[in-house]
């Protein structure tokens, strides 16, 4: 008999067709396999038993990086093929999966380390199970000629491997060796070729710009405080923590606590940065992560990274090479131009990067993996969604931007694009959008955007000449959490974040809803405070503390603002006058700003030099085991539940005056939020009989808050949804916008 089998999933660029070829030969089948762009088609002829065993093998024995989503089979009359072959690719059509980049596999690493192997220490070794994918694809389907490897012609030996069905490099598109493939070059800041060993330069304390998979990293010895400080000064990066790359797992274990789940995540083909709890006291310079007790760690994921670690070097700073908020630098020319005042040397190579892609960032909270930056290793795999009625382009938000192209049952999110406040980022956005649109062949019918009138993405939406759908920021967060969990029932949702534009024109950020993606209703929020200074207040936790004290505690609050925050009486009086006289100050219910206020008041952080600093430092201080809470109240005000912490301020200041440990106060504040949130959910469950809760928003990256909340809510028998595939922060809202607009 003959059967045609259609296989859908992640099957391009992961050694799937060679695998099918070997499997067919093993079972004595004849026919062919070919890439159809959106899927792989297989024709097999043989006995019924042979074909059944073959189909079982497809599901059970496929390559580690492949993911089979669906298979369809049809029976046909036998055509009488004499052998089994891989047919050439046809033009791509329909929807398509492109594999993300994959970390170096164990087999390739072994060859890389073997003196006798012809690729001994070759920095571009790869096979069908590992290597660059998304970052080198110019167009689909994924064939060498469509990648940035097109300009390298394979030598005899590489070509034989490429065509040898028994080889691990059979149809490995980026296949290369020292004879025929890309090469490294080391140059100094003037662009002159340098003969020194680059790992010795790192050991001597120099800063290198190293070209990686999706862009350049700035690299230095993480154990050298002078090198770390120099990098901070030259990059103009005051306090934001640096990502680190350790030589191997044993090195990570010297510096951080690590669970089984975290270990697996670090060693996965995605090889993301994992936020780990630091072992203290530590021999690492405190300037790596000022004020924090977490380390963002990753393992070498390209062969080139393994070359960086020689001698005593075992841990490196590995931070994205970009200027302030701009996208990561990714071409040799750009690096030599833009990084010349930062890097002492440049480790370049001649395999062009086509798509910029930052390192992904993840954390494990109570065994759940949560992604806070979704890029290398994850993009461009789609999120499966309930089929949409219309094809949508959702533009996301202005911070931590991603966009989303969705059609049918798939939503393709772009890699993390960064903040949209600069021209470079906007250009990158347009470029990536046009690429992904052509790869996935999605011509949007509508454009979804945030309601914020001042967002760059909102203006961009208006320029696209398509029907627009504005989606409220926090509803988009919540929808993304539901889709992320493939949940279609009704939920009670909580979204806590910095700020998002509310449907009443106030700046929301601590919001309870009920509903499904078809309709959300706001049921409760944190009591509003006036936000004098608007968005600029984000940088000034001390001003936020002043506003809370004045608004919620009046003259007494003013006294403490002077005493604890050092405001001059004249400045306080000015704020009081504005509060009394002005009618059109925007109000905010932001959770992020509440964290800022508490952080400033307790003396932890009065100025944010990066987004979320005050909150992260406060979280880092929390001591375990604190049971006490501050007072809170939940009241009906104008048909909506309002959460008030008015009574917390005097109690918190009393703790400060009693010289209670700041770690105790920080933990007590976190406990208060957990109690207040759980209390509110219980009230709402009473009213609505809804027992499933969904948690979203950037504040859910706070591990202390989230893990405590999970414990509390589980104890009260709630079913809980948290993010899995997309970030809880603004990096996830494009998905929510897409499903709300396209349903
Ligand atoms: Zn490999
Ligand atoms: Zn070769």
UniProtKB/TrEMBL annotation:
The keyword Metal-binding applies. It is an enzyme of class 6 (ligase). InterPro entries: Acylphosphatase-like_dom (IPR001792), Acylphosphatase-like_dom_sf (IPR036046), Carbamoyltrans_HypF-like (IPR051060), Carbamoyltransferase_HypF (IPR004421), DHBP_synth_RibB-like_a/b_dom (IPR017945), HypF_C (IPR041440), HypF_C_2 (IPR055128), Sua5-like_dom (IPR006070). Its EC number is 6.2.-.-. It catalyses: C-terminal L-cysteinyl-[HypE protein] + carbamoyl phosphate + ATP + H2O = C-terminal S-carboxamide-L-cysteinyl-[HypE protein] + AMP + phosphate + diphosphate + H(+). GO terms for molecular function: carboxyl- or carbamoyltransferase activity; double-stranded RNA binding; ligase activity; zinc ion binding. Residues 2-88 form the Acylphosphatase-like domain. Pathway: Protein modification; [NiFe] hydrogenase maturation. One of its GO terms (biological process) is protein maturation. This is Carbamoyltransferase. It comes from Thermanaerosceptrum fracticalcis. The lineage of its organism: Bacteria, Bacillati, Bacillota, Clostridia, Eubacteriales.
């Amino acid at each position: 008999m003959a059967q045609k089998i259609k296989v859908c999933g992640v099957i391009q660029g992961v050694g799937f067709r060679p695998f099918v070829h070997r499997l067919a030969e093993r079972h004595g089948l004849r026919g062919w396999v070919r890439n159809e762009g959106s899927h792989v088609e297989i024709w097999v002829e043989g006995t019924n038993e042979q074909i059944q065993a073959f189909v079982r093998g497809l599901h059970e024995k496929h390559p580690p990086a492949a993911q089979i989503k669906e298979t369809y089979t049809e029976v046909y009359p036998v055509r009488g093929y004499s052998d089994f072959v891989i047919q050439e690719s046809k033009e791509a059509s329909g929807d398509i999966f492109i594999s993300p980049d994959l970390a170096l596999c164990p087999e390739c690493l072994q060859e890389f380390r073997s003196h006798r192997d012809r690729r001994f220490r070759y920095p571009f070794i790869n096979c069908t199970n590992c290597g660059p994918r998304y970052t080198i694809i110019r167009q689909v389907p994924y064939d060498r000629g469509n990648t940035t490897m097109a300009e390298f012609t394979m030598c005899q030996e590489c070509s034989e491997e490429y065509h040898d069905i028994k080889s691990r490099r059979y149809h490995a598109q980026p296949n290369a060796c020292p004879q025929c493939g890309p090469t490294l070059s080391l140059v100094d800041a003037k662009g002159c070729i340098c003969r020194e060993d680059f790992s010795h330069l790192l050991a001597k304390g120099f800063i290198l710009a190293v070209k990686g998979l999706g862009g350049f990293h700035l690299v230095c010895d993480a154990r050298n405080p002078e090198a770390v400080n120099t990098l901070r000064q030259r990059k103009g990066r005051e306090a934001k923590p640096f990502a680190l790359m350790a030589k191997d797992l044993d090195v990570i274990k010297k510096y951080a606590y690590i669970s089984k789940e975290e270990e697996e995540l670090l060693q996965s083909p995605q090889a993301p940065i994992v936020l780990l709890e630091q072992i203290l006291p530590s021999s690492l310079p405190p300037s790596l992560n000022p004020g924090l007790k977490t380390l963002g760690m990753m393992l070498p994921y390209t062969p080139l990274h393994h070359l960086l670690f020689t001698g005593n070097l075992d841990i490196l700073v590995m931070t994205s090479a970009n200027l302030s908020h701009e996208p990561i630098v990714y071409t040799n020319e750009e690096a030599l131009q833009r990084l010349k005042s930062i890097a002492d040397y440049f480790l370049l190579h001649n395999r062009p990067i086509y798509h910029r892609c930052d390192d992904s960032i993840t954390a494990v909270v109570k065994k759940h993996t949560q992604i806070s930056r979704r890029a290398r290793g994850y993009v461009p795999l789609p999120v499966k969604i309930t089929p949409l009625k219309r094809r949508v382009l959702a533009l996301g938000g202005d911070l931590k931007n991603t966009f989303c192209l969705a059609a049918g049952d798939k939503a393709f999110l772009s890699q993390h694009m960064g903040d949209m406040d600069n021209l470079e980022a906007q250009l990158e956005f347009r470029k990536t959008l046009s690429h992904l649109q052509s790869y996935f062949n999605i011509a949007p019918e509508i454009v979804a955007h945030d309601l914020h009138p001042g967002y760059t993405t909102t203006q961009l939406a208006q320029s696209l000449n398509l029907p627009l759908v504005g989606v409220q920021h926090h509803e988009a967060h919540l929808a993304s959490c539901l889709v992320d969990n493939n949940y279609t029932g009704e939920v009670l949702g909580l979204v806590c974040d910095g700020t998002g534009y509310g449907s009443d024109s106030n700046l929301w950020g601590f919001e309870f809803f009920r509903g499904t993606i078809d309709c959300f209703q706001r049921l409760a929020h944190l009591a509003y405070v006036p936000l004098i200074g608007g968005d600029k207040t984000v940088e000034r936790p001390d001003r936020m503390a002043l506003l809370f004290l004045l608004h919620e505690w009046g003259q007494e609050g003013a006294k403490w603002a002077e005493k604890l925050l050092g405001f001059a009486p004249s400045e306080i009086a000015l704020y009081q006058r504005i509060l009394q006289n002005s009618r059109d100050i925007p109000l905010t219910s932001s959770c992020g700003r509440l964290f800022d206020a508490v952080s400033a008041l307790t003396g932890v952080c009065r100025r944010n030099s990066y987004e979320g600093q005050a909150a992260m430092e406060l979280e880092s201080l929390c001591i375990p085991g604190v049971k006490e809470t501050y007072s809170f109240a939940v009241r009906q005000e104008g048909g909506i539940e309002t959460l008030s912490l008015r009574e917390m301020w005097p109690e918190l200041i009393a703790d400060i005056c009693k010289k209670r440990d700041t770690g105790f106060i920080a933990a007590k504040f976190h406990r208060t939020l957990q109690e207040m949130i759980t209390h509110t959910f219980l009230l709402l469950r009473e009213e609505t009989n809804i027992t499933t809760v969904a948690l979203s928003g950037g504040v859910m990256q706070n591990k202390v808050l989230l893990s405590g909340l999970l414990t509390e809510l589980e104890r009260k028998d709630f079913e809980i949804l948290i993010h899995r595939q997309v970030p809880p922060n603004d990096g996830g809202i494009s998905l929510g916008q897409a499903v709300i607009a396209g349903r």
